[in-house]
Write a structure and sequence with these properties.
Layout (H helix, E strand, L loop, with lengths): L1 E5 L8 E6 L5 H11 L6 H5 L7 E6 L2 E7 L6 H14 L6 E7 L6 H15 L21 E7 L7 H23 L7 H15 L2 E5 L1 H7 L2 H7 L7 E8 L6 E6 L1 E5 L19 H15 L5 E11 L11 E2 L7 E2 L7 H16 L3 E6 L3 H7 L4 E5 L2 H14 L3 E3 L17 E2 L8 H10 L8 E5 L5 E3 L6 E3 L4 H12 L2
Parallel strand pairs: 1-6, 2-4, 2-5, 5-6, 9-11, 9-14, 10-11, 13-17, 14-18, 15-16
Antiparallel strand pairs: 3-4, 7-8, 8-11, 12-13, 15-18, 19-20
Helix pairs in contact: 3-4, 4-5, 5-9, 6-9, 8-10, 9-14, 10-13, 12-14
The structure holds ligand BES and zinc ion (2 copies).
């Protein structure tokens, strides 16, 4: 499928989807459209206010013209969402040539068109992964949509680069939707490893997979302990992309629990099926290195994914067990359902000891408590670095993957003290669960000065227009991609 930028001319697309903001330019723009489409004066002005979610549709010379309202001061997220929703809801009607257009001034061209195109491409996503009848699936991979035109009178040299970047990130995001939406009988640790390997081969970065025996050799004892109850062996994925030889390295660690039953501290069954998404952190990390390599970003990345299932078995770890870890520190496992922090402990100390990255960011669907605090509006952020925190806050706000900082005060550390081991994996108190989890992780970062932990339990797998129930969001890929780009400009 061809995607290109074109001046606005007499050649009409089958569908022109035009996004409009309700600001002081709206009236003029509507007048322009009235004359372009030979409408009687005032007809748009009187019938369309560009309020959020407002959609206005008419035909001109048998072609569809669709106006999407975005309300006041929409950002990247609002543009993306409006286009994604419209395309998704109408994807079986859309065919042929599709044009997209925004009314913004030249300084906002880049992000509005990127967001609009990202929305159009993601809107084509089809969740029917395992349906026998894939009818109505993914029109953009078929031949129904022949071309997407970014319709705009502005001429500059960057359009192709904007289009290419957006096409690539959309592909990565959709591949990650599939990975997160896959059920645990089709997605176990080795499947994450295969995804990483394939991406590495395709995009030119190295991927080492430590199998169970190699994990034993290395002493990744906390990961091995969690995996003891599972028939599917664990893997420890180490991916490295060198885009800036000699420059600093950014380390990423993602929780790759392909299914979390809770282990012997079994979860209630009601929503347990959603725990196939407990690898949302791994998905974000793998997606990020994938897009960074595809776009040849001038950064060095090392991405680590400890991956296992957390299942029930006679060999599974039991509450009260004391386990070892890669760091050499011992852990009293009060609750086997607090397994994410155990495997991240090994991921974090491994990355510090072997790579010593300048910045470390970990992402994990870590606590239900974080969902209680923030819902699905933002991820919980914990960090010892104000500058990086501020940067992630700003980028998250701009690009619609928001983070909200929570404290890492030492007062919470006391709750994690164990009598018989170096630390325990669960606080004795039913409060501040997201924070005490972060304090547990901090213990394994070897006092690294620039560490960020993102608890993405509420944002990785949520209600959205792709599904009747929840589904994967690919949360974090856009945020981290923009963060990495900002690092290249430093
Ligand atoms: N994977 C869960 C956290 C989670 C819950 C993610 C809901 C997404 C949606 C994690 O491993 C877990 O079970 N956490 C427990 C921790 C508790 C035992 C301290 C929780 O949050 O209940
Ligand atoms: Zn758990
Ligand atoms: Zn979990």
């Amino acid at each position: 499928m061809n995607i290109l930028q074109k001046q606005i001319d007499n050649e009409l697309s089958n569908f022109s989807i035009i996004a409009l903001e309700s600001n002081h330019d709206l009236e003029n723009y509507l007048k322009t459209l009235e004359s372009r489409y030979q409408l009687s004066s005032g007809i748009l002005l009187n019938n369309f206010k560009a309020e959020a979610k407002e959609v206005f549709h008419f035909l001109y010379q048998d072609k569809h013209i669709v106006l999407l309202g975005l309300g006041k001061k929409p950002g990247f997220a609002e543009y993306l969402k409006a286009f994604r929703l419209y395309v998704h809801q109408n994807k079986n009607r859309l065919s042929g040539d599709i044009a997209i257009e925004t009314m913004v001034s030249p300084e906002n061209l880049e992000w509005t068109y990127k967001a609009a195109l990202n929305g159009v491409l993601l809107g084509g996503y089809c969740i029917k992964l395992f349906k026998a009848d894939k009818n109505g699936c993914a029109p953009f991979q078929g031949d129904k949509i022949t071309r997407i035109v970014l319709q705009c009178d502005n001429k500059n040299d960057h359009w192709n680069q904007w289009i290419e970047e957006t096409r690539q990130i959309s592909e990565t995001q959709m591949s990650i939707f599939d990975l997160v939406n896959s059920p645990s009988n089709k997605k176990y640790p080795q499947i994450l490893a295969n995804w990483a390997k394939n991406s590495g081969i395709k995009n030119g970065y190295s991927v080492d997979i430590l199998d169970k025996a190699q994990c034993e050799n290395k002493g990744l004892e906390a990961l091995l302990a969690v995996s003891k109850g599972s028939e599917n062996p664990p893997v420890f994925i180490i991916a490295q992309y060198l885009g800036n030889p000699g420059g600093p390295t950014i380390g990423l660690v993602g929780k790759g629990v392909t299914f979390d039953t809770g282990g012997i501290s079994l979860k209630p069954s009601a929503n347990m099926h959603m725990m196939k998404s407990d690898m949302g952190g791994a998905a974000a990390v793998l997606g990020t290195i994938d897009i960074a390599a595809k776009m040849n970003l001038k950064v060095n990345l090392v991405a680590i994914v400890p991956s296992t299932e957390n299942t029930v078995d006679g060999l599974a770890i039991k509450p009260g067990d004391v386990i070892g870890s890669y760091s050499g520190k011992t852990i009293e496992v009060i609750d086997t359902d607090a397994e994410g922090r155990l495997i991240l402990a090994d991921g974090l100390s491994y990355i510090v000891k072997n790579f010593n990255p300048q910045i470390i960011i970990d992402l994990a669907t870590l606590t239900g408590n974080c969902i209680m605090a923030l819902g699905s509006a933002a991820a919980g952020m914990f960090s010892n670095d104000n500058e990086i925190s501020a940067s992630l806050e700003n980028l998250g706000q701009t690009f619609g993957e928001k983070v909200w900082r929570l404290p890492l005060w030492d007062i919470y550390k006391e709750d994690m003290q164990s009598d018989i081991a170096d630390i325990k994996n669960l606080s004795g108190k039913p409060v501040a669960g997201a924070i005490t989890a972060a304090k547990f992780l901090e213990y394994f970062t070897e006092e690294h000065p620039k560490w960020v932990h993102l608890d993405i339990a509420g944002v990785a797998y949520t209600d959205n227009e792709f599904s009747m129930n929840r589904s994967g969001t690919s949360w974090g890929i856009r945020l981290l991609f923009e963060f990495l780009k900002s690092q290249t400009k430093k």
